């Protein structure tokens, strides 16, 4: 005797969110049954293995059938096929689009193409996340990317409107889209210590201050690209290193402000020109796409590593960058205050986020 | 030309991609009614077309309006080849024909295709302008209201109850026409859907005509069924109760349960002159056997008959299961009749007489059975068929009862009903002239009248009944093997087996009832299905302890050969286990009657007698009664240990797993003994198909398997619903089928199966939460939260800058579905019309759709979705008395094909939630509890 068919359909679609998680994690039915057994599901309602298997299969099937709708979450609200309470719809969508930051870290900055999709096996092995789950997460990235890529207006808001995600999750997706679009280098060994959250924070900064949408909320362009004009103007900052007087004066101002306040004062004094040059050069190079991609690796190699070598503390870096930024305002001949603040604001917060072990 | 139908096609959304090249669709719509067709313009290159068509007007006879559905076909325009159909929508116009129902159908309806399922939605508006036609010879019956609900609908008052109406129409099944050999399965299935839609329309119209003839304006308890007789045709039949209903003005609705009519609703009694008694149900012969039971001489009957000869009616049957208090005077017991027929091969659609005659015969039998029980009417009446190849079993059952003519005549008889009353338990038959040996006692409630010691009925528990403890679902399950045979031989074999099956089912029910220390069954439904080499019987009912009836005796086990000591030991352990179970059940169901102690410790001998007479009470056939007696002579109170059957019985008695804590189940509308319902409810359909590995099983083996399957199914349900605890599964409706090899295949290809398939589906289970007093607070909280979820899609961002609006427009209305006739803690304010839908779904890529389970799962979900959409389009927010009448599944895995037919029905309604103030202290409404509240607590 064998069960040929076993279906259970409710007028209101009933979903067990614990089982949903197992499904999202890419488990097979039998694995999921095992997990549920270990969690003590059998103790409830005098269930047996058969009952549990049947329930798990049923739930998995339900999720599978809903998956199509989850691909365009706005449809979930207007579709007629499944009557799902709004509360559950929200959970379904949110969980479906949630991702493992370990996985996101691996894919970050990569082109969301078929080629990358083929590497998912490796990522799955490396991270211990099932291939099925990797595929879902990758497809989610790709889907969100495709939809918002060409849209005008604020990136986070676009993602929220089209995918009905929570604010935090939408911001994470914005980061992923932003990285995938600009193809920032994140894979280098030296960058390995950075987590997804570090990059997501930086992306948020870049989106908020360096894109077209950042200055002009009436947007013509979109949020995904950095403002060309701004990057071009960054070249003007070169005076800070090219003009010897200005550089010296800058140094004097910073040193005056920091004397006695930081332990690494001596080293700072020695290295000031190098550090300043590193930051200014970085700015002036950003007109080239290649250099934009290397933004993070450059920050690490040219600024973070030297500081780390000299054992700066985060507090010291904060102080240094604050005074370094402010001192430029006191330079009589320096005319690019606006650009300077816009540049340094982002650079400062990125460095602070990235400055850890 | 008394009607103008107007339809407007507004828009479409979520359409499928029909043009691979552009990933878009050039959609247009054909609107067809009768022979007239209109088309919209093609809306090019869009998956969300906006047609905004003009009003398409059809000027038609109202007869056609009733018969025909409005057909809407969405197509993809193709310049070079034939246009591809995307899908169809059938709209039943009927709800628009009654002034009291819906006035417009407007909303998003799923576009359905038999192969692809739901493919997007279409927004339509449909209206009807009806001109009055006073032609006496008219063929239409517009305006007659239909209700599936088997009680007087909530916002109506019964001014008159006219009685039984029935009709059947037959046609050739398009699936079996010669043309089917050359057309595609899809075209065939569409033809079938269309035909059945037409036939139901016609049937409803004809029933409506009968109602008008009787002077009524509504049909309550409308039950429509299909018989797919295969090559011999397609039968659509329906029964119902004709009534004259008055709409209650809102505000006075609290009185609705009392048919306080000034005009006497004339109940039609049966012919008192008929002396014929119960005949054999299972006989192939047409001649009814003359029985021996003298006709009862009820004073009511004669009096009534002579006073209201005008309303004399052939069959005093009522499809209602729930009555206003005081309506039922006495209940006799269950009456049922079955008849095995051979389907004739040559079939003439214009002569439905054969089928009519068959049913006529059965009804006559039922009537005579009722008379044998001293009753003039049958309530809770229903009919069903089961077909296996050319053998067809027709069954009818109901509860013999005496109805109160005085009550009906004088109208409001100061509703003694709201108080507990015991009248309906009293025997209707003459004590000194009993139709069968029965043990009577004085009523435990009034101490004046005689009552039987057990009562079986097919109706719901009357509101006035006093119950001790809680009720529970009781099931008897039985499997019997049968030799494969053809034609007449097969039919004879089946009809020989039937009485034994009925007998055993009753014995099982009786034992289980006693084991739970209960004394009455309500909502009894016995289903017998035929397979190629087995017969299945499944009886479900809700057991209760009626306070008016005596306490049931215990169960005694006796051995035939009490020589062996160890054997005696065995018996006494068994006995102990049984006694323990009884004690445990008493606790579980909270049954603590006042005077039951002396009764329980009964000696085996009266017990034996009693068990025998229970059976007789509930069975109506003489043949069965005789059988019963002969079996009795051989000794055997059921639990005799020598008997293999008895061992089996004990096994099944003791293996019935108890329900997990927090769960209750019943198959009636309300759970006896539980009164505090919350409004949280959830309706389910579950289908399971098992393949039996070995066809050469014994009866016992089969029984065991069958019982296990049912138990497992229940267990699964409990597990699934564990998050809703405390909850109650109401209206648990099981259906079993043994699709024979012929049926399993898809579309007449030679079958490859060798083993039979068991096919169980409990349908329309409703889960209601609600619990004992101490947990009330908790459960209310639990469910109110899940209830209040707004149906609005969560659009979080302000679309400040969005220039293009997203396709998700209006929020989807939440539509509740329930097999009950009411929604707890709500008030039904309007009935919008009957929903009666028939769908076929087929696939040629079964594996790709997730196998049989995936296929059926999505189909059932689609059917739900379509029902909900149609209800919402009518302006409703719930379906009550919902039921899935038919669910026929066929598959051919070798060909990767499957096909399924589903028929659903129900009443579309608008309900409003009782506001909290209103619900808890029902002070408003003239001091009476509002009806829904009151009934919800009965």
UniProtKB/TrEMBL annotation, chain A:
A GO biological process held by the record: platelet aggregation
Q: List cellular component terms (GO).
A: nucleus
The GO terms this record gives for MF are: fibroblast growth factor binding
- This chain belongs to the protein called Fibroblast growth factor (acidic) intracellular binding protein b
Q: What is the species listed in this Swiss-Prot or TrEMBL entry?
A: Hucho hucho
The organism's lineage is: Eukaryota, Metazoa, Chordata, Craniata, Vertebrata
Automatic annotation (TrEMBL), chain B:
Composition bias (Low complexity) maps to 270-287
In which domain of life is the source organism classified? Eukaryota
InterPro entries assigned to the protein according to its UniProt record, in alphabetical order: C2_C2CD5 (IPR037785), C2_dom (IPR000008), C2_domain_sf (IPR035892), C2CD5 (IPR038983), C2CD5_C (IPR057815), C2CD5_YbjQ-like_dom (IPR056430), C2CD5_YbjQ-rel_dom (IPR056431)
Q: Where in the cell is it found?
A: Cell membrane; Cell projection, Ruffle; Cytoplasm, Cell cortex; Cytoplasmic vesicle membrane
Q: SMART domains this protein is in?
A: C2 (SM00239)
Keyword set, alphabetical order: Calcium, Cell membrane, Cell projection, Cytoplasm, Cytoplasmic vesicle, Lipid-binding, Membrane, Metal-binding, Protein transport, Transport
**Primary site of residence:** membrane
Q: From the UniProt entry, list the residue stretches annotated as the region Disordered.
A: 254-293
Name of the molecule in the record: C2 domain-containing protein 5
Tell me which Pfam families the record gives.
C2, YbjQ_2, YbjQ_3, YbjQ_4
Q: Give the UniProt entry's GO cellular component terms.
A: cell cortex; cytoplasmic vesicle membrane; plasma membrane; ruffle
An MF annotation (GO) of this entry? calcium ion binding
Q: Does the keyword Iron-sulfur apply?
A: no
Q: Does the keyword Metal-binding apply?
A: yes
- Family matches, as CDD domains: C2_KIAA0528-like
SUPFAM superfamilies for the chain: C2 domain (Calcium/lipid-binding domain, CaLB)
- Positions of the C2 domain: 1-109
Q: Which GO terms describe its biological process?
A: insulin receptor signaling pathway; intracellular protein transmembrane transport; positive regulation of D-glucose transmembrane transport; positive regulation of protein targeting to membrane; positive regulation of vesicle fusion; protein localization to plasma membrane
């Amino acid at each position: 005797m064998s069960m040929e068919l076993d279906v259970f359909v409710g007028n209101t679609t009933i979903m067990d969110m614990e089982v949903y998680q197992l499904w999202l994690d890419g488990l097979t039915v039998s694995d999921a049954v095992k997990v549920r057994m270990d969690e003590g599901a059998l103790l409830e309602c005098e269930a047996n293995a058969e009952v549990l298997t049947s329930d798990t299969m049923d739930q998995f099937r339900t999720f599978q059938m809903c998956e199509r709708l989850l691909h365009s979450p706005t449809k979930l609200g207007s579709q007629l096929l499944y009557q799902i309470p709004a509360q559950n719809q929200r959970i379904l969508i949110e969980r479906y689009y949630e991702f493992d930051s370990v996985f996101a870290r691996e894919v970050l900055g990569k082109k969301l193409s078929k080629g990358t999709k083929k590497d998912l096996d490796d990522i799955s092995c490396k991270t211990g996340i099932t291939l099925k789950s990797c595929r879902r997460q990758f497809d989610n990235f790709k889907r969100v990317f495709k939809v918002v890529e060409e849209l005008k207006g604020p990136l986070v808001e676009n993602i929220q409107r089209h995918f009905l995600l929570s604010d935090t999750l939408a911001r994470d997706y914005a980061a992923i889209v932003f990285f995938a679009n600009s193809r920032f280098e994140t894979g280098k060994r030296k960058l390995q210590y950075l987590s997804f959250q570090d990059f997501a924070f930086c992306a948020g900064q870049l989106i908020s201050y360096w894109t077209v949408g950042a200055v002009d909320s009436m947007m013509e362009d979109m949020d995904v690209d950095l403002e060309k004009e701004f990057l071009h103007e960054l070249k003007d900052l070169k005076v800070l290193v090219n003009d010897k007087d200005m550089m010296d004066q800058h140094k004097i101002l910073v040193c005056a402000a920091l004397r006695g306040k930081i332990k690494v004062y001596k080293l700072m004094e020695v290295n000031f020109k190098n550090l300043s040059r590193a930051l200014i050069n970085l700015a002036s190079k950003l007109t080239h796409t290649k250099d934009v991609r290397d933004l993070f690796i450059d920050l690490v190699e040219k600024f973070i590593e030297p500081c780390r070598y000299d054992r700066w503390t985060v507090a010291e870096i904060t102080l240094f960058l604050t005074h370094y930024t402010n001192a430029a305002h006191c330079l009589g001949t320096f005319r690019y205050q606006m650009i300077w603040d816009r540049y340094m604001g982002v650079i400062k917060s990125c460095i602070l986020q990235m400055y850890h072990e | 030309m008394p009607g103008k139908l107007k339809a407007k096609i507004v828009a479409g959304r979520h359409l499928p991609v029909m043009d691979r090249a552009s990933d878009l669709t050039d959609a247009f719509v054909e609107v067809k009614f009768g022979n007239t067709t209109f088309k919209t313009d093609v809306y090019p290159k869009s998956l969300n077309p906006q047609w905004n068509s003009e009003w398409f007007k059809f000027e038609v006879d109202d007869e056609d309006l009733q018969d025909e559905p409005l057909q809407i076909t969405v197509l993809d325009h193709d310049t070079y080849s034939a246009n591809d159909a995307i899908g169809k929508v059938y709209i039943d116009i009927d709800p628009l024909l009654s002034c009291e129902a819906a006035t417009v159908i407007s909303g998003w309806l799923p576009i359905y295709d038999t192969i692809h399922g739901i493919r997007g939605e279409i927004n339509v508006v449909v209206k009807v302008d009806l001109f009055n036609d006073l032609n006496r010879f008219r063929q239409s019956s517009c305006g007659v209201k239909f209700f599936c609900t088997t009680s007087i609908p909530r916002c109506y008052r019964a001014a008159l109850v006219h009685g039984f109406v029935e009709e059947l129409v037959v046609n050739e099944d398009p699936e079996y026409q010669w043309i089917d050999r050359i057309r595609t399965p899809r075209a065939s299935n569409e033809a079938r859907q269309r035909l059945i839609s037409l036939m139901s329309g016609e049937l409803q119209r004809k029933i409506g005509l009968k109602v008008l003839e009787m002077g009524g304006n509504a049909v309550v308890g409308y039950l429509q069924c299909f018989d797919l007789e295969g090559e011999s045709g397609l039968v659509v039949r329906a029964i119902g109760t004709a009534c004259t209903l008055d709409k209650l003005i809102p505000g006075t609705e609290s009185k609705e349960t009392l048919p306080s009519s000034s005009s006497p609703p004339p109940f039609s009694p049966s012919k008192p002159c008929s002396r014929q008694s119960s005949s054999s149900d299972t006989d192939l012969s047409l001649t009814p056997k003359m029985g021996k039971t003298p006709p009862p001489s009820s004073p009511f009957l004669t009096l009534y008959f002579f006073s209201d000869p005008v309303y004399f009616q052939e069959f005093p049957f009522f499809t209602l299961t729930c009555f206003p208090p005081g309506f039922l005077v006495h209940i006799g017991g269950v009456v049922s009749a079955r008849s095995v027929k051979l389907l004739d091969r040559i079939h003439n659609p214009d002569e439905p007489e054969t089928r009519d005659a068959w049913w006529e015969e059965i009804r006559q039998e039922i009537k005579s059975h009722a008379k044998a029980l001293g009753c003039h009417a049958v309530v809770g009446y229903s009919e069903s068929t089961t077909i296996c190849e050319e053998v067809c079993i027709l069954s009818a059952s109901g509860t013999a009862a005496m109805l109160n003519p005085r009550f009906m005549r004088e109208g409001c008889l100061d509703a003694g009903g709201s108080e507990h009353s015991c009248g309906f338990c009293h025997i209707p038959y003459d004590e000194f002239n009993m139709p069968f040996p029965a043990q009577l006692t004085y009523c435990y409630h009034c101490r004046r009248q005689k009552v039987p010691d057990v009562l079986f009925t097919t109706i719901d528990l009357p509101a006035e009944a006093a119950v001790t403890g809680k009720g529970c679902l009781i099931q008897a399950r039985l499997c019997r093997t049968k030799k494969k045979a053809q034609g007449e031989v097969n039919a004879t074999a089946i009809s020989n087996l039937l009485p034994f099956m009925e007998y055993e089912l009753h014995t099982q029910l009786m034992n289980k009832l006693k084991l739970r220390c209960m004394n009455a069954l309500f909502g009894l439904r016995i289903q017998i299905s035929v397979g190629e080499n087995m017969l299945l019987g499944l009886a479900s009912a809700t057991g209760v302890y009626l306070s008016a009836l005596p306490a049931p005796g215990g169960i005694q086990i006796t051995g035939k050969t009490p020589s062996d000591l160890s054997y005696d030991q065995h018996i006494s352990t068994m006995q102990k286990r049984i006694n323990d179970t009884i004690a445990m059940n008493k606790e579980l169901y909270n049954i603590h009657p006042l005077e039951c102690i002396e009764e329980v410790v009964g000696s085996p001998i009266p017990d034996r007698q009693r068990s025998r007479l229970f059976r007789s009470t509930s069975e109506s056939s003489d043949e069965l009664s005789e059988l019963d007696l002969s079996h009795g002579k051989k000794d055997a109170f059921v639990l005799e240990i020598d008997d293999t059957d008895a061992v089996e019985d004990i096994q099944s008695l003791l293996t019935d797993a108890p329900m997990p804590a927090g769960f209750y189940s019943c198959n009636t509308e309300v759970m006896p003994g539980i009164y505090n319902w919350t409004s949280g409810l959830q309706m389910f359909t579950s289908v399971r198909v098992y393949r039996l590995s070995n066809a050469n099983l014994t009866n016992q083996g089969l029984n065991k398997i069958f019982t296990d399957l049912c138990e497992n199914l229940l267990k699964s349900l409990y597990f699934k619903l564990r998050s809703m605890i405390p909850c109650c599964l109401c209206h648990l409706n099981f259906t079993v089928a043994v699709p024979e090899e012929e049926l399993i295949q898809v579309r007449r290809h030679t079958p490859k199966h060798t083993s039979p398939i068991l096919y169980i589906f409990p349908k329309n289970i409703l889960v209601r939460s609600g619990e004992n007093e101490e947990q009330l607070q908790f459960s209310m909280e639990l469910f109110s939260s899940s209830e209040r979820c707004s149906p609005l899609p969560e659009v979080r961002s302000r679309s400040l800058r969005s220039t293009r609006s997203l396709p998700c427009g209006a929020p989807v209305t939440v539509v509740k579905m329930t097999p009950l006739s009411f929604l707890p803690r709500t008030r039904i304010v309007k009935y919008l019309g009957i929903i009666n839908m028939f769908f076929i779904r087929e696939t040629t890529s079964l594996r790709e759709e997730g196998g049989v389970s995936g296929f059926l799962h999505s189909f059932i979900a689609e059917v739900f979705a379509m029902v909900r959409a149609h209800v919402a389009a009518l302006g409703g927010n719930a379906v009550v008395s919902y039921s899935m009448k038919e669910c026929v599944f066929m598959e051919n895995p070798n060909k990767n094909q499957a096909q399924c037919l589903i028929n659903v029905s129900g009443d579309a309604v608008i309900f409003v939630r009782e506001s909290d103030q209103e619900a808890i202290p029902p002070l408003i409404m003239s001091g009476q509890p509002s009806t829904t509240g009151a009934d919800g607590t009965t």
